[in-house]
Amino acid sequence: MSEQIIELNDQVDTATLYGVNNQNILCLKNMHPKVRVVARGYVLKATGADEEVAAFEQDLRKVEQFCIEHNTLTEEIIIELIKGEAPQVFQHDNLILHGVNGKSILARTAHQQKLLHDYQKNDLLFAGGPAGSWGCWCGPPCRRTRWWRRRASACACLRFPPRTGCR
Asked: Which of 87, 91, 94, 157 has the smallest count of CB within 10 Å of its CB?
């Protein structure tokens, strides 16, 4: 019986690696039933026979590397990685960008998907934010009337041609 402390790479997202309710770690434990695993943060402690612990660490490193590259992990992917097969990676049709840690930012709503589709067709798009974010020249009455008297340079009404109801 040997005990080995395994430190994870700092780039891995532990929430993705461990899974909901440690589901992914439990899957790894089930694939290596003779190894006892305790996971806390970026450190795992594996206890068992030397060969079993070494095999567990090798499989954990495969799963960890996949998690760093794709920032997604399921039980099916873990099983395919341990068996030595290449897991099928899904390409997202509605992918906007990859975030800071490689997390995929997807277009979720119908309007976001339409915007993404239009962006692929056109070179330049104008998209407004939530209601009221385009300035105060949107119609009567001007909501910033009192405020622009104090700071005239900050009011959009003075910088853009006024529309109906703006001063």
From this structure: 91
Rounded Cα distance, 91 and 94, in Å: 9
Are the C-beta atoms of residues 145 and 139 closer than 8 Å to each other? Answer: no
Q: Is the pTM of this model over 0.70?
A: no
Number of H helices, E strands in the chain: 7, 5
Q: What's the pLDDT tens digit per position in 32-50?
A: 999 999 999 999 999 999 9
Distances (CA, A) of 26 to 18, 29, 131: 8, 5, 46
3-state SS class at 145: helix
Confidence at 110, pLDDT banded by 50, 70, 90:
confident
Question: What is the token pair recorded at 61?
Answer: 């490193």
Mean pLDDT across 71-100: 81
* 129-143: pLDDT as tens digits: 666 555 544 444 455
Read off φ and ψ for residue 38, nearest 5 degrees.
-125, 125
Distance of alpha carbon 140 from alpha carbon 55, whole angstroms: 71
CA Rg value for the chain:
27
Name the H helices within the chain. Answer: 14-18, 23-31, 50-70, 75-83, 110-121, 145-150, 156-159
